[in-house]
Please model this.
Amino acid sequence: MMIVAIATWYFTSNHDSRGNFSLLRGVWWSFRYNLGTLALGSFILALVWSIRVLFEYMQKKMTSFSNSSAVKCLVNCIRCILACCHRFIKFLNKNAYIQCALSGDNFCTSAMAAFALALKNAGSFVITNGVGSLIGFLGKVTISVLNTVIGYLLVEFIMLDKDALESPVIPCIVIFILSYIMANQVMSVYQMTSLTILQCLYADVDICNQKGLDVYESKWRPKEMEEVVNMLKKK
Model:
């Protein structure tokens, strides 16, 4: 939904007019054209997660029979491989969904194209994901801490029946957990937005190269992207 809205905004914008940003279009496209793609990506992710859960169950059974260093080393290696595989599938899923919104291809074709694009521009994708993750983490912590502080002040100074509550610690913990969960959902939108715009930019660059247009002087992209394009030009 968000991916379609951002992609259509990017490719319908230019230096003189704003693009079309519609979340409803994203909902319609998801159910009308890309429901199978979403289902397949979710299934693959759930399958990898299920394998990790099954391995943790087997690991407990294995360590109950043997506590040797070799077994522990093997278990840790397999756990690390499965964790890396899970993170890779999550990253590939996001990029495949974005590529599907841009090209309209099926999941496998979009995943291969997205992987090739990320591999071709690995530096930019690593920086974008790193900065996005850092900002997302700081945003989640900031929101959670501020809400917890506000909740503490409300409990300590505004709550009418203070005798009904022995300590504000438990309410503050609940406020922090709920705030972190909600902030995680909000900041994930920011991370997906940054990744979608980056992939739209490189798709735009590829289109310009195919048509023989000047990549850096194109007027058929959002004017907010000029600074990013100038940074690429300096490279």
Remarks:
- The CA atoms of residues 21 and 137 lie 27 Å apart.
- The mean pLDDT is 79.
- The chain has two domains: 33-118, 121-235.
